Amino acid sequence: MSNTPDLNIDRVAELARIALTPEEKTAYAAQLGEVLKHVEQLKQVNVDGVEPTAHAFSVENVWADDVAQTGLSAEDALRNAPAQRQGMIAVPKVVD
Amino acid sequence: MSTPLTFQTLSGIADQLASGALTSVQLTQAVIDQTAAVESRVNALLSHDAADALAHAQASDERRAAGKPLGPLDGIPIALKDVIAVRDQPLTAGSKMLEKFVSPYDATVTIKLKEAGVVLWGRANCDEFAMGSSTENSAFKTTANPYDLARVPGGSSGGSAAALAAGEAIATLGSDTGGSIRQPAAFCNVVGLKPTYGLISRYGLAAYASSLDQIGPFTRTVEDAAIVLGAIAGHDHRDSTSFKTPIPDYRAALQEKKGPWKLGIPKEYFGEGLDPEVGAAIEKAIEFYRQAGCEIKEVSLPHTEYCLSTYYIIATAEASSNLARYDGVRYTHRSPDAKNIEDVYFKSRSEGFGDEVKRRIILGTYVLSSGYYDAYYLRAQKVRTLIRQDFLKAYEEVDAILTPTTPTPAFKIGETTDPLSMYLQDIYTVGVNLAGLPGISVPAGFTDEGLPIGMQLIGQPYQESDLLAIAHTYDSAHDWSGRLPEL
Amino acid sequence: MFQYAGYSLLATHYSLLKIMNYEAVIGLEVHVQVKTASKIFTRVGQGYGHEENTLTDPVVLALPGALPVMNKAALDAIIKSGLMLHCEIADVCKWDRKNYFYPDSPKNYQITQFDQPICIGGEVEIELPGEARNVMGEHKKIPLTRIHQEEDVGKLTHFAHDSLVDYNRAGTPLMEIVSDPAIASAEEAYAFLTTLRTTMVYAGISDCDMEKGQMRCDANISIRPVGQEELGVKVELKNLNSISYVRDGISHEIKRQKAVLKAGGTIVQETRDFDGITGTSQSLRTKEDAHDYRYFPDPDLMPVRVDQAWKDRLAAECPERPFDKQRRFMAAYDLPYTITSVLVPDRELSDWFEATVAIAGKPQAQAVGNWIANDLLRDLGAANVSLADAKITPAHLAELVGLIEAGTITKQIAREVFTESFGSGETPSAVVERKGLKDDTNSDELEQWCRDAIAGNDKAREQFLGGKDGAINAMKGPVMKASRGKANPKLVDETLRRLLAE
Ligand SMILES: [Mg+2]
Ligand SMILES: [Zn+2]
To answer: Is the predicted pLDDT of residue C116 greater than 80, yes or no?
Structure first.
């Protein structure tokens, strides 16, 4: 981590699928630059040999038995769909 | 002068319902009337359905008339933060993204409340996707603090806190990822409980940061919090992070557990930035416990200064992934200008999300991106381990930790504009989420200006009985919540 | 320019002659759907061929608030697969999110295993084609990198103006089996998938029907000059949706790469789409648009710890590996390779075989094998009946083989009996009894038929007595005819010889 974190706002916004106006880009870059500068302090912490915490408490092997249950009706599944056709969600044609 | 009905405690109201002195329909109507009287100024609720509430109240009264044994929540109107799913009700999460979304399913807490006979009343405003500390980030309205309408109620569960403080509900539920229950509770003179991570199912809670989020109640008293907690806590097979632990009778524990306790005062929470009036109120609370026979010990939580940085990396990283589902495809806002699938994503998301959400998604995407993961996310996860260890080490010496809930009382609407200063609001509360501990904010007095002050008590994992008993000791000896807002 | 173009054409033309100059290095990524009742992270049912969007719930659709919960059976299945394929089963594995946007992916992240997969290493034994159909081919072991578990996505269908999404498939448990880059040819890749499919079907993990998308294969293909250590630039080939397409697609791609290199060109790292019908491929995307998946541990799911007891329990449930069984069948029952290669790939059929032999006795194994490989399979096919639904049982066949061995009926009669039992489920002895098929000829009767046969075949008798042993057959026919097929051929032979010697 350097003193001025190299936040490439275009690249990151692209990954996040958020279109930003030039004004938003400038503002966010500055604001997040401040936050990242603050976050630089973590560099001071000695984390040698420290295990990362992914969960607030560690429990293993949480699962359910394989018993099929009824889910949503097709009507409920599509209830909030912005566009639908033939019982399916419609999106503009996807070209891979 | 007796306390107006909708400002009375849940336990007191439950007694009146049980004795037949009051019906749920009367109570619900009083809540509807109070809402009609104050809501235009408080703006705590995003939606409510009076007819539906009265129908459920009627059903509760009929159950009671039939002589069925009913729990203390039967017939009680409770409002839910608008991030909790209720079948056939809107769920906006304070976002334009979900403006038209109607949930086809119930959250686990919703099911539990329905089973307890609760009258589900209103959806409380909040910061968009629970990201914020003032409820100013709601896409729909800015909630006002009932104790000073020019000030924020706190956030992100500001609507839940304000609705309760304004007598628009008898209890409310919120969610707390970095202080989102405790901070608004402190600002609005109510009790706010964030239980241990895993005690209450998150199924049906629109996720902000999965490893930190926890649902919890807002109530007027600690005893009321114990009642609501008892109804919504417990293992859920739909939430893999839900903890398997027996749920005791939290309300009974308030009577059984009398202390004296050893309370830890972390020196790191009383430094620079703490408002003197808040500091003085907390000193008084400490003095109360000392007088009550508790042992007061200074403890150290040496990694406190890193909590905020750690929190903002972990929370935003998780959020960037959790909020990817709001994409314009299946159920959210879809930009009318979308010509191709990338448009659907980019345009829907930039139109649907507000500023703070976009900022956090971008920050979270960045800290996870190729080349930065180790420096930010992995390191934050390691510091999180150290933060948790600090607390567990302190608990070798003390039963609970006592701190201010917030460094300052409620600030003015529109006053805090830069994100970093807003983030600093959470300085005393985020550590609890990172460590997965239970924390409660209890009313602890007022500033000279009449702004509420909150005291935070932090307990040990899954020892909510102890935490509530400790909080009740103070709460039952004070009547701060009896000081109603002038609306 | 033109000169170069002409040269390249020539080079392509001669590339066949120089084919030994390059060798292919192939790695396969095979996705296999696990046959569970419910999805991998939620309990709504899963399956193929249901009406669109009828197998969804809040988790499948990634509604606000939905949370995943692991399916124990999916874990059991992948551990079993790992045990079948000689993998090391990790003590602890965890779940990660792979973040990318695509309309078939409801959460816009896939829950998968990034750096701690559940199965590590392992190998797939393959058999290459032999010199002839009745000769066993060379066996090789293709090392695996890993097998991890993940969730499937929904299904997109493209129309003229839009695309439609069905989320029924989303959340189906998948295993991704990743081979080392250690496959040398299209034939080996074909054999690899054949073994994988047989193994998965054997263990009841998946039906691996590629047409239903239950097994899907991507191939990473590169070529390098023989003797070179360093790998060439790899091309990822997608949409290889039948085992034959895998073979065709890979062989096409190897040819394409060789042609490019021989023409002096360079291979671009890219993803290509193979069209099995036209046998051609086209570029989908090049390396530049590489993804940044931002993997991180899924906070909604807890890690899995696999202890020895769990592994032992699943190991006990694992069937014998197909090639192990084939070797055992050849050694223990003295079966020819051709029969074993009919019996073994079908677990039910090989079980049926062993059940029959268990009753009939080991000496009858070859006869049993022949009956199954010829008559049983033929009749099943003709009647379009599955083995499980067949009326004939191992006990029936064992009894039938016993009747032949005892000389009670001839093999010819036995065919008739078999068909009866197959059709009705009646036991062979009952059929023989009811239809009077037993060889109940007394020796006087037989002797008379034999005398008649000799008398009526002067020419054959002369030839036989003149030293042509085979001529005796011409005299057997009338005897069998007279007995209506029931006479014991061995006895007929003996009697004829005795009478001819008189
Ligand atoms: Mg892959
Ligand atoms: Zn995969």
So the answer is: yes
Confidence band for C3, pLDDT divided at 50, 70 and 90? very low
Interface test with B, best of C57, C60, C101 (most B CBs within 10 A): C101
Q: How many CB pairs under 8 A join A and B?
A: 166
Q: How far is B90 from chain C (nearest CA, A)?
A: 12
Looking at beta carbons, which pairs linking C362-366 to residues 24 or more positions away fall under 8 Å? C362/C332, C362/C333, C364/C398, C364/C401, C364/C402, C364/C405, C365/C333, C365/C334, C365/C335, C366/C333, C366/C334, C366/C335, C366/C336, C366/C339
Q: Cα of C48 to ligand 2 centre, how many Å?
A: 19
Asked which of C435, C460, C488 is the last residue of a domain, the reply is: C435
Contact C69 A91 (CB under 8 A): no
List the structure tokens of C175. 């295993």
Q: Tell me how far apart the alpha carbons of residues B382 and C375 are, in angstroms, rounded to a whole number.
A: 68
Q: Which of the residues C39, C56, C67 would you substitute to probe the B interface, choosing the one with the greatest number of B C-beta atoms within 10 Å?
A: C67
| Nearest C-alpha neighbor of C157 from the set C147, C149, C148, C167 | C167
Which chains have 3+ CB pairs within 8 A of B?
A, C
Ligand 2 ion: Cβ-proximal residues, 5 Å cutoff = C 176
Report the gap between the CA of C92 and the closest CA in chain A (Å): 9
Domain boundary among C402, C435, C468: C435
B101–A80 CB contact, under 8 Å: yes
Q: Which chains touch C (3 or more CB pairs under 8 A)?
A: A, B
Query: Residue C396 Cα, ligand 2 centroid: separation in angstroms?
Result: 47
Specify the amino acid at residue B321.
Answer: S
Task: Calculate mean pLDDT across residues C212-238.
Answer: 94
| CB spacing of B362 vs A41 below 8 angstroms | no
Q: Separation of C149 CA from ligand 2 center, angstroms?
A: 8
Domain ranges of chain B: 5-264+396-482
Q: Which amino acid is at B430?
A: V
3-state secondary structure of C278: coil
Q: For residues B423 and B444, is the Cβ–Cβ distance under 8 A?
A: no
Q: Could you tell me the distance, in angstroms and rounded to a whole number, from the CA of residue C78 to the centre of ligand 2?
A: 14
Contact B370 C292 (CB under 8 A): yes
Domain of C292, in residue numbers: 20-308
Contacting residues for B391 by C-beta, under 8 A, at least 6 apart: B301, B401, B431, B435, B437, B458
| Helix, strand, coil shares, percent, chain C, to 5 | 45, 20, 35
- Could B420 and A53 be called an inter-chain contact, meaning their C-beta atoms sit closer than 8 Å? no
Provide the terminal-to-terminal Cα distance of chain C, rounded to the nearest Å: 94
Average pLDDT of adjacent 10-residue blocks, chain B of 487 residues: 92 98 98 98 97 98 95 98 97 98 98 98 98 97 98 98 98 98 98 98 98 98 98 98 96 93 97 94 98 98 97 98 98 97 98 98 97 96 98 98 97 91 91 98 98 98 98 97 95
Q: Mean pLDDT in chain C?
A: 92
pLDDT (tens digit, 9 = 90+) per residue, C14-59?
Answer: 444 444 489 999 999 999 999 999 999 999 999 999 999 999 999 9
CB–CB of C33/C215 below 8 Å?
yes
CA B393 to chain CA centroid, nearest Å: 27
Exposure b/e, C120-150, CB count within 10 A at least 16 = b: bebbbbbbeeeeeeeebbeebebebbbbbbb
- B85 and chain C: CB distance < 8 Å anywhere? yes
Q: In angstroms, rounded to a whole number, what is the distance separating the alpha carbons of residues B46 and B92?
A: 9
pTM (global) more than 0.90: yes
Residue C271: inside a domain, yes or no? yes
Co-location of C25 and C155 in the same domain: yes
Mean pLDDT of C127-151: 96
Q: Do C91 and C229 reside in the same domain of the chain?
A: yes
Instruction: Name the 3-class secondary structure at C112.
Output: strand
**CATH superfamily for domain B5-264+396-482:** Amidase signature (AS) domain (3.90.1300.10)
